[in-house]
Amino acid sequence: MSELKDRLQADLTGAIRARDEVTTATLRMALTAITTEEVAGSSARQLSDDEVLKVLAREAKKRREAAEAFSSADRPELADREQAEGAVLDRYLPTQLGDQEVADLVRAAIKETGATGMPHMGAVMKAAQARAAGRADGRRLSAEVRKQLAG
């Protein structure tokens, strides 16, 4: 079993004992998503820490998007709940890169691929995502790649 999944289960036990409702519900949801991913496909398998991180990042993204949707629908109580769940998940995700770090990363990816314009965006994105390794949102990377390739 991956170390991260073990940590999630240990933290769930601690949250239940502390009667922390938001953390308990969020970790249960995350562990359910991980289990679902493990049994998906033709045979069950154990996820590696990297795969667990991808599942957690996907769940955190869902929380951010739901919070935005609830905020725009004038449902602040639901948006606050989604943001709280996202904060719990963020504890397990790698620290996100800053704007300057993303710009430097994209610059290096462009140099690596030899891209000269927008037709090479796919190759640059592939290289940039590999370098970012989950530390930058795809939207941020895409915007920076477009900005640097266009100008």
Keywords:
single chain, 151 residues, mainly alpha, Hypothetical Protein Yqey, Chain: A, domain1, Arc Repressor Mutant, subunit A, globular
Overview of this protein structure:
The protein has helices at 3-18, 21-39, 49-72, 76-90, 99-113, 121-132, 138-150. The protein is mostly helical. It has 7 helices and no strands. Helix content is 75%, strand content 0%.
Mean pLDDT: 92
Q: Would you identify the regions where 5 or more consecutive residues have pLDDT less than 50?
A: none
CATH second-level architecture of the largest domain: Orthogonal Bundle
Strand count, sense and closure of the main sheet? none
The H-and-E topology, N to C, reads as: HHHHHHH
Structural class: mainly alpha
Number of helices: 7
Distance between the termini: 47 Å
Q: Report the oligomer.
A: single chain
Q: CATH top level of the largest domain?
A: Mainly Alpha
Shape: globular
Fraction of residues in helix: over 70%
How many domains would you count in the coordinates?
Answer: 2
- The percent range for strand residues is under 5%
Topology (SSEs and partners):
Layout: H1 3-18, H2 21-39, H3 49-72, H4 76-90, H5 99-113, H6 121-132, H7 138-150
Helix pairs in contact: 1-2, 2-3, 2-4, 3-4, 5-6, 5-7, 6-7
